[in-house]
């Protein structure tokens, strides 16, 4: 099977077909050839846990995707349902004895579905607005952030909540409005004219940082903490200008064309750096998988592989290159949630836990099934609110009651878990791993100065 | 309750009403195709529908409806069975029991627990381990297989050498009979009730006599101590001799597992490698458990036996973590074959332990003749051999070749005085091979028992037994005619 992707124009059947896959960028047969249908993945899958139905299980989805290639099924609405109901949490990849890349296969199948059945109507417009108009453009995101900031600070938020205007929104959006983090200054804006943010003390190495799209608007304080802990530990930090959204949301949604475009832009933007630091698990996982987007473009495939090897999660980077243990004490009981794209996606589990345990006064309470998806899954909680809620509920049942904070390494999870805390009447604070480390460092300097 | 269904089929409508809604029934081709096979993928057939009852009552109503309307039906758990017991070869209505997954009660004092059939095997141990108890039968699929399915197949597992298979742990069953009646066997959870051993008959009946809806199982206290040994052998004969000598020395290991060269290649290429050398012919995994005081002595004895049998390298696990890694490597062995082959067919023969070297030699010949690689994973302690025939279904004729090779392996097992299944069941896969161990009269004697429970053969028809030979059928017809007159 050799298909050179660039030869075909979008949304037109290509000459090479695989069963009933008629569109550009055929799914990779070798991915389902690895699956022997043993079922070891079943219990790892949150949607199977909720439904008990095979077509909503990893091996069931793989089986359906294969069935289309064998000509037994067509790419239609009924096929779309199980393929798009997958959270893309990758828990099955961890459970699978044969290393079947279910996540990659799902994304390829979504690529076929989106070409065969383009989104229409309001769904289409909404997806175009977010995925094409907004996320890839930092300046637009910042303007929107400004609007959000205006909404929060002008008193408009209070008015909306008081006048019950809020009840015209669907339930899950109301819940989301309730936990919207306060918008702060974007790090890209803050360091716009600064070539390099110098390490405090001796420079040991130079790193480049992905600021992310939503991350830098909604969670710029986490970006700031990331810069602080990096410079504190001998890293000169650069924020390359040309970088953009990682494209994960696009690829999850089946828009591989746009995903590829963004990937190329990032590969170029970071070409001159040795290490690319990411503090959002979803972005990190996507960037480590860029090669999958270029199976049909040899030159870019090689560049993507080189790039992916440079991408590292902040906790792993600190763990590998060494970090100073904070001396000040943060008296707090915490629990740790494994973001799917950090644990299942990148195999990063021990590193953040060890960092947290190195902070004096931090007591870690074990969370059962810590690497179970919280239901955030990119924008899944917006596209599949009902399933996301059910998954969140079973997640919250595992969060220990007697902790002050829940720590994790992914902004999507942070929003979703914040909804969980609010919805189920809990009172934990949601924090990113690097924030806790940063606070401990800050407290240390306060103690020293005081 | 009236339910809105996008189907003109009256039966679908009626079944949907019984289970109370569209979320508890599947009838579109796109959904059904995921149910056209179970862990045995070489036969596929679409079911008529899949229903998801929530309790015994709904199961009974579905069964009654199917029975009255002559619709074939069968029960399904997690669908991890390896002999095709849950494949709807007659276009059955599949009754999926996965939503009946409650742990109903645990009685530590009397050491028993009551579960629904969809409850996952390992979850029982997880639920009671903090009190120091566990559920002993541990099929390798225990992460996901259901206890209901374990009862149907009389599932075994690595630790069944010392503790026995599922049937030794079942104290009571609630069963929906093929006419929709609900009965209880072993009502008080007391073992060995007077009368016929119906628990024994039901357990392992492969879903052909009734549908189990509630199960009382025995739970055991965790052993005080546990230790595991790993041993590498350059020659299969030597590993095999070590197995026999360990048993004959009087030790009853909790588990005694063996993998051959091809199996090692598979598990090392897959998700849980532990660094087994590639050039050995056999690896043994030996576990002892029990009162802490005697463990070290038994381990020393085992090490001694292995050395006597020219082991290349042998050692005990240094900690629990290492022990778990060794077991994860072994227990994911079947799935791991996906890493070295697109498809596999697993066989399930039982042989006298002492015949292992001879049997492996003959399996090697089968492999050479068929041109297909065969890996061997072996519950060596109880002689339960799993030859895994590796093939590629996309290549023309390979499925047939694999089936032939698998059948030939079973013939070898039967020829050396063994049998054709130890724990995976007969299903549709080994129906014909039943003839290796039973003659027509013996098969008829068994189908006569089935007729008592399942007279119209609507429940999981066509499984477990081959169609009897023509002459026997005629004989039976004559006999029936005589009886009637």
Automatic annotation (TrEMBL), chain A:
Cofactor(s) recorded in Swiss-Prot or TrEMBL: [4Fe-4S] cluster
Pfam families from the UniProt entry: CCG, Fer4_8
Domain 4Fe-4S ferredoxin-type: 23-55, 76-100
Catalytic activity: glycolate + A = glyoxylate + AH2; (R)-lactate + A = pyruvate + AH2
Annotated cofactor note: Binds 2 [4Fe-4S] clusters.
UniProtKB keywords: 4Fe-4S, Electron transport, Iron, Iron-sulfur, Metal-binding, Repeat, Transport
Enzyme class, first EC level, given as a word: oxidoreductase
InterPro entries documented for this protein: 4Fe4S_Fe-S-bd (IPR017896), 4Fe4S_Fe_S_CS (IPR017900), Cys_rich_dom (IPR004017), Glc_ox_4Fe-4S (IPR012257), Helical_ferredxn (IPR009051)
Enzyme Commission number(s) of this protein: 1.1.99.14
Gene3D superfamilies per UniProt: Alpha-helical ferredoxin (1.10.1060.10)
PANTHER family: GLYCOLATE OXIDASE IRON-SULFUR SUBUNIT
Function: Component of a complex that catalyzes the oxidation of glycolate to glyoxylate.
Protein name in UniProt: Glycolate oxidase iron-sulfur subunit
Organism per entry: Cytobacillus citreus
From TrEMBL, chain B:
Ranges of residues in domain FAD-binding PCMH-type: 43-222
Entry keyword annotation includes Transport: no
One Pfam entry name: FAD-oxidase_C
Keywords, sorted A to Z: FAD, Flavoprotein, Oxidoreductase
SUPFAM superfamilies hit by this protein: FAD-binding/transporter-associated domain-like, FAD-linked oxidases, C-terminal domain
Annotated InterPro entries: FAD-bd_oxidored_4_C, FAD-bd_PCMH, FAD-bd_PCMH-like_sf, FAD-bd_PCMH_sub2, FAD-linked_Oxase-like_C, FAD-linked_OxidoTrans_Type4, Oxid_FAD_bind_N, Vanillyl_alc_oxidase_C-sub2
Cofactor: FAD
Gene3D superfamilies referenced in this protein's UniProt entry, alphabetically: 3.30.465.10, 3.30.70.2740, Vanillyl-alcohol Oxidase, Chain A, domain 4
Name of the protein in question: FAD-binding protein
The organism of origin for this protein: Cytobacillus citreus
């Amino acid at each position: 099977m050799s298909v050179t992707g660039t030869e075909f124009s979008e949304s037109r059947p290509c000459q090479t077909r695989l069963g009933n896959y008629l569109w550009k960028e055929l799914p990779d047969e070798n991915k389902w050839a690895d699956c022997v249908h043993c079922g070891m993945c079943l219990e790892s899958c949150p949607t199977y846990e909720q439904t008990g139905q095979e077509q909503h299980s990893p091996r069931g989805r793989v089986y359906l995707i294969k069935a289309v290639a064998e000509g037994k099924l067509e790419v239609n609405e009924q096929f779309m349902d199980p393929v798009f109901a997958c959270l893309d949490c990758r828990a099955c990849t961890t459970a699978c004895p044969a290393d079947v890349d279910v996540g990659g296969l799902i994304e390829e199948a979504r690529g076929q579905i989106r070409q065969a059945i383009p989104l229409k109507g309001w769904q289409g417009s909404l997806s175009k607005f977010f995925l094409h108009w907004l996320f890839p453009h930092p300046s637009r995101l910042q303007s929107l952030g400004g609007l959000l900031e205006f909404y929060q600070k002008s008193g408009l938020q209070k008015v909306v909540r008081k006048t019950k205007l809020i009840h015209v929104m669907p339930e899950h959006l109301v819940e989301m409005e309730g936990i919207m983090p306060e918008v702060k200054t974007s790090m890209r804006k803050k360091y716009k004219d600064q070539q390099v943010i110098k390490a405090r003390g001796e420079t040991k190495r130079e790193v480049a940082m992905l600021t992310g799209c939503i991350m830098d608007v909604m969670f710029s304080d986490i970006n700031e903490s990331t810069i602080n802990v990096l410079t504190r530990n001998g890293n000169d930090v650069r924020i390359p200008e040309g970088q953009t959204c990682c494209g994960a949301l696009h690829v999850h949604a089946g828009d591989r064309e746009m995903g590829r475009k963004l990937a190329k832009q990032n590969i170029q933007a970071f070409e001159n750096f040795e290490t690319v630091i990411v503090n959002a698990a979803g972005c990190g996982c996507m960037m480590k998988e860029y090669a999958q987007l270029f199976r049909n473009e040899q030159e870019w495939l090689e560049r993507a592989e080189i790039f992916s090897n440079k991408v590292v999660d902040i906790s792993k980077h600190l763990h590998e290159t060494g970090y100073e243990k904070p001396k000040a004490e943060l008296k707090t009981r915490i629990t740790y949630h494994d973001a799917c794209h950090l644990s299942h996606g990148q195999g990063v589990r021990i590193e953040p836990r060890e960092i947290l345990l190195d902070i004096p006064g931090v007591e870690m309470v074990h969370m059962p099934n810590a690497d179970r998806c919280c239901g955030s899954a990119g924008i899944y909680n917006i596209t599949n609110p009902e399933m996301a809620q059910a998954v969140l509920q079973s997640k919250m049942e595992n969060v220990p009651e007697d902790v002050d904070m829940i720590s994790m390494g992914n902004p999507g999870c942070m929003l979703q878990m914040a909804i969980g805390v609010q919805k189920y009447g809990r009172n934990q604070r949601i924090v990113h791993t690097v924030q806790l480390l940063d606070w401990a460092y800050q407290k240390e300097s306060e103690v020293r100065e005081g | 309750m009236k339910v809105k269904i996008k189907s003109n089929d009256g039966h679908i409508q009626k079944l949907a009403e019984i289970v109370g809604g569209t979320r508890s029934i599947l009838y579109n081709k796109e959904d059904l195709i995921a149910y056209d096979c179970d862990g045995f993928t070489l036969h596929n057939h679409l079911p008529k529908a899949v229903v998801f009852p929530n309790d015994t009552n709904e199961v009974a109503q579905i069964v009654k409806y199917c029975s009255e309307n002559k619709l074939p039906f069968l029960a399904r758990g997690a669908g991890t069975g390896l002999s095709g017991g849950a494949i709807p070869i007659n276009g059955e209505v599949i009754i999926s029991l996965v939503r009946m997954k409650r742990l109903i009660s645990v009685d530590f004092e009397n050491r028993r627990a009551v579960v629904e059939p969809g409850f996952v095997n390992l979850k029982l141990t997880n639920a009671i381990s903090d009190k120091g108890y566990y559920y002993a039968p541990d099929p390798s699929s225990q992460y996901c297989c259901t206890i209901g399915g374990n009862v149907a197949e009389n599932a075994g597992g690595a630790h069944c050498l010392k503790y026995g298979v599922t049937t030794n742990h079942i104290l009571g069953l609630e069963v929906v009979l093929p006419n929709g009646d609900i009965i209880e066997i072993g009502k008080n959870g007391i073992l060995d009730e007077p009368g016929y051993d119906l628990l024994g008959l039901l357990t392992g009946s492969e879903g052909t006599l009734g549908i189990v809806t509630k199960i009382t199982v025995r739970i055991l206290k965790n052993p005080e101590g546990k230790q595991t040994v790993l041993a590498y052998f350059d020659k299969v004969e030597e590993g095999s001799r070590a197995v026999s000598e360990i048993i004959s020395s009087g030790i009853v290991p909790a588990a005694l597992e063996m993998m051959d060269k091809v199996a090692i290649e598979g598990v090392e290429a897959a998700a849980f490698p532990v660094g087994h050398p590639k050039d050995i012919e056999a690896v043994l995994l030996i576990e002892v458990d029990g009162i802490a005081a005697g463990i070290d002595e038994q381990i020393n004895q085992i090490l001694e036996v292995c050395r006597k049998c020219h082991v290349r390298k042998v050692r005990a696990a240094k900690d629990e973590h290492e022990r778990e890694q060794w077991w994860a490597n072994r227990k994911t062995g079947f799935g791991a074959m996906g890493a070295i082959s697109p498809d596999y067919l697993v066989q399930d023969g039982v042989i006298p332990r002492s015949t292992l070297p001879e049997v492996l030699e003959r399996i090697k010949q089968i492999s050479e003749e068929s041109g297909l690689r065969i890996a061997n994973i072996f519950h060596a302690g109880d002689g339960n051999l799993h030859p895994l025939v590796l093939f590629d279904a996309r290549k023309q004729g390979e499925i047939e070749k694999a089936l032939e090779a698998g059948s030939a392996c079973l013939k070898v097992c039967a020829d050396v005085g063994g049998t054709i299944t130890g724990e995976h069941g007969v299903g549709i896969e080994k129906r014909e091979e039943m003839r290796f161990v039973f003659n027509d009269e013996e098969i008829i004697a068994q189908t006569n028992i089935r007729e008592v429970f399942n007279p119209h053969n609507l429940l999981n028809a066509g499984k477990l037994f081959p169609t009897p030979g023509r002459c026997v059928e005629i004989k039976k017809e004559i006999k029936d005619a005589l009886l009637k007159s």
